[in-house]
Amino acid sequence: MAKVKITETVLRDAHQSLIATRMPSELMEPILDKMDQVGYHAVECWGGATFDACLRFLKEDPWERLRMLKRHFKNTKLQMLFRGQNILGYNHYADDVVEYFVEKSIANGIDVIRIFDCLNDIRNLETAVKATRKEGGHAQIALCYTLGDAYTLEYWENLARDVENLGADSLCIKDMAGLLLPKEATELVGALKRGTSLPIEMHTHYTSGMASMTYLKAIEAGADIIDTASTPLAMGTSQPSTEVMVAALQGTEYDTGLDLDKLIEISNYFQPYREECIKSGLLSTKVLGVDIKALKYQVPGGMLSNLISQLHQAGKDEKLQEVLEEVPRVRKDFGEPPLVTPSSQIVGTQAVMNVITGERYKMVPKESYKLVAGEFGRTVKPMDEEMLKKVLKGEKQMTDRPADHIPPQLEQFKEECKEWMQQPEDVLSYALFPQVAKDFFQYRDAQKSGIALKNADKENKAYPV
Ligand code: CO
C-alpha cells in the first residue's frame, strides 16, 4: 500500500501565509499534545518567517518557542524551513554561522530541516545539508518550482540527481506561487523519480485554486508526502486542508491512515482563532479566495501587490500593464530565476524602475546589482550580455560559491552582542536580525525586572475584596 504521509503546516506556513506569521506560542500550546497523537509525518513549526516575527512583533524568544514545542511533541518530528546560506535572513552568511545555526536548531528540538535556495543553486545548500547530517538531523532539499524555457523535465530530473548526490534524505517541490498545474504535477513527479529514489514531498499554495487537484495528481504519480494545513488556516494563500485531503484519500490505495475525528478536534480548536483574526482584520478575505491574477501573470501574490504599491507611490498607477509585461523580460535578462524571496522583489523592483524611468537599467537598485554580480549564486541560464555590460560596467561576475568570499563571522557576532547574552543561542538571533534582536534583548531585560510586579498584581486579583 502506497500510504501517503502528511506534513501539517498550521504552526508555520499556514499562519505565515494568511496572518503574517502572528500566531503566538500561547495560542499553540493547548493543542499540541492532541496534535502529537495524530501520527503526522512531521509538523512544520519553525523557521521561515516565524523567527523574525517572534522577535520583532510577538516579543517572544524563538528558541524558547522551539523548546516548548519539543516538550509537547514527543512522538512527532519537528520540521523547520531554512533558506540555505541565508539561514532565515536575507543575506549570505559565512559557513560557521550556518553550521552553528543548524547545530543549535537540532539541539533544541528540530528533526527535519527543509533547505532551499532562491536560485536552486545547489552550492548554496551544501553547508546546511552537511551540517544537518552531521548533527543527526534529516536534511530535506526543497527545489523552488517555477516556469520558463530553462525549466524542462530534464532540468528537474538532473536537479533531483544532484540533490541525492549532495546527501539529502528527501526532496521537496516547493511551489510557493501555486503555479503547478495538475497535469504538470504528473510529469514533474515522474521526472523527479527518474532522477532519484529519495522520498518526494509536495509543497504548494492554494493561491491559484489548483492545489488539491495538483496534490492528487502528484500522489498518483508517486509523491510520498504532502503538506497540508488544519482547515481554519488552510486554502487561500495557504496549503490545502488536512482534513479534506485525508478524507479524499480514505479508502484508496493512498489512504493516510490518519483519524479524521482527531483532526476535526484540532480543527475545532483553531476555528475560534480564525474568526478572531477575521474580526481584527489580521486575516483578510483578500487572501482567502482564489487569485486569478496569479494564474494569469504567474507571479507570486505578494509580488503583484508589491508592484501595485510601488507604482502607486510613484504616482504611476496606469503603468501596471507595462510593468507586468516588463517582469518576464527582466527575469530573462537576469538568467530566468525562480520568483521567490528575494529574487521576486529584485526582479519586480527592476521592472518598475525600467518602466518609470523610461530607460532599461538606467536605475539599478543595490540588490539588483548583487544578483547580477553573482553574489546570490548562479542562475539557471546565462544573463543577457547587453544588460551585464550596462549594470556591471566592466566588473566581473562572481562565478564561484558566494559564501567562499565570506570569512568566518561567529566570533565577531559574539563580541558584538555579549552584553545581552543569556543563552548561547542569542548570538544566532543577533547574527540574523541585529537590530531586532537587540531591541528584543532589551525588552527581555526590562520584562525580567517587571515580572515580580506582574505576579504581585495577579496575586492581588486572586483575593478580591
Ligand atoms: Co510555502
From TrEMBL:
Gene3D superfamilies: Aldolase class I (3.20.20.70). Its EC number is 4.1.1.112. It is an enzyme of class 4 (lyase). GO terms for biological process: gluconeogenesis. PROSITE patterns: PYR_CT (PS50991). Residues 4-264 form the Pyruvate carboxyltransferase domain. InterPro entries: Aldolase_TIM, Carboxylase_cons_dom, PCB-like, PYR_CT. One of its GO terms (cellular component) is cytoplasm. The keyword Nucleotide-binding does not apply. Keywords: Lyase. It holds the Pfam family HMGL-like. The keyword Lyase applies. Signal peptide: none annotated. GO terms for molecular function: oxaloacetate decarboxylase activity; pyruvate carboxylase activity. This is Oxaloacetate decarboxylase alpha subunit. It comes from Oribacterium sinus.
